[in-house]
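JOB MANIFEST
job_type = single_chain_structure
chain_count = 1
residues = 126
[input]
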Amino acid sequence: GSPDDLLQLQSLTVSPDPPQPGRNLTIMASALVREEIEDGAYAHVLVKAGPIMVLSKQFDLCAEAEKANFSLLCPVKPGQYDIVHSVELPREVPFGKFTIQVQALAADDAPMFCLNAKVDFSPRVV
C-alpha cells in the first residue's frame, strides 16, 4: 500500500497458518482508517494458481461485510480498529499454491488499500 491510502493495514495474521480446506480460518487484522469508508467502496480481487487465473471479480465491500455478519459495517468512521473474523473454508478447495491480489477503492475511486498474499493448499504429511 501507499502512505496515502485511506486504510493503513498494520498487521494481518491467519489461523491456522497455513489455511486448511474444510476448517475455519480466523483472520486477525489491525488497521488505521484515515477517512470515513462509505457505501460504494469496492475491491478488485484476482486469484491465480500459478499462471492460471482462477478468479477475477469486483466485490462491493460494504455489501459483502453485511452478508458475512462482519463486526464492522459501513459507514466506517476514522480510527484504529482491531478486527477478528472467521470463515469456513470449503472442503473443495483444490490443492495448490495460490496468489491473491486485492485492490480496494473508495466509492470515489480513491485508493483504500492493497494486499498481495500467497496461500499454500498443498497436501500436508502428518
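[summary]
Residues 61-67 form the longest helix (7 residues).
Helices lie at 61-67.
exit_status = 0
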